[in-house]
Give the backbone structure.
Amino acid sequence: MLLTQMWNEEAREARGLRRMSVTVSSPADERKGRDWFHAGLSAEERRLMQGLCDALQQLLNKQYQRHMWDCSIA
């Protein structure tokens, strides 16, 4: 949900406070709706935003896996 809020803030700043929001109830729903931010963006902006979203998702997955590995050792 925090990721969604960050996207909303960035999108409002980048697009002159244009409303771009989504309701997410679970991480699985967030993955299914990852392209929600495309409204009002050019093809190049969508491509860049999708790349950023993919990179953030990979980083979050690695952090989660590292945390789970740390917990299993303890």
